[in-house]
Amino acid sequence: MSHIIRIGTRDSELALWQANTVKTRLENLGYQTVLLPVKSTGDLILDKPLYELGITGVFTKTLDVAMVKGEIDIAVHSMKDVPTQLPKGMVQGAVLERANVEDILVHKGKTSFMTAGKATIATGSLRRKAQWLHKYPSHTVAGLRGNVNSRLQKLQDNDWDGAIFAKAGLERIALKPDNHTVLDWMIPAPAQGAITISVMEDNTFVKEAVARLNHTETEICTRIERDFLRTLEGGCSAPIGALAIFENEKIHFTAAVFSLDGTQKAEVNTSFSVNDALDKGIILGKQVLNEGGTVIMEEIRKTLN
Ligand SMILES: NCc1[nH]cc(CCC(=O)O)c1CC(=O)O
User: Which residue stretches, if any, does this entry annotate as coiled coil (predicted)?
Assistant: First the structure.
């Protein structure tokens, strides 16, 4: 059967890099493809913090609509931007092997501020803000929105000491500056560093094609992280980090929810056999809710709503 697979993507440099990776992989398997870039709501509204937009999936919605309308066959996303609840009829077609999961601080050549009392760090992410303030309570966090390229530019244009980025994003488009510090203590976003492909459940030909790109270990780890997120958040964006690492048939899992100001956290740190992985994200999510998470989440909902 001859069928050109229409690949939908956002039009940022990072999104295009990710979509082109999928395009090449599919073509190497003998499929014909075409790339269809679109602008997403999350890229068009840049003057508000993401959580104030009050819509989940600001980066994925435009592509979701295009797929439901039949204008594209698949959508390629940074998995951490994808809401835990997919639109009706849409499924996770594949998760590619994960790249680096860490966050990094890009700075301007000196890092003495990390031990000093005063510093201003820029990020638009509630998760990064809360964890930074948890570790450096005397620092200030400034808001920062935009795609990776414009966020790097804004760091240069402002007198901030540094800004936080996903290492994977900067490495993919070869923009990681020498002036950076890996934040190995910061818990990444659920599914950070992973690329996912959405497809309509009834699109059998394309579903079978993209399934060939799936990386099982990454799929298992990101499922646990996203189950944990879904169990805690209940549709509200909150400072939640989760990381599952697959090692010798075991999974090491670290996750936490923080209060918005970073003063409180409820966390879990555990290991289990991959054979027990199935419901772990939900089980450990409930455990964290019981051990202080519910109180923190209620406070966050009051503040953000
Ligand atoms: N919404 C921003 C976003 N979504 C995915 C990535 C990078 C790639 C990844 O983490 O998977 C980024 C940039 C960043 O967080 O700095």
Answer: none
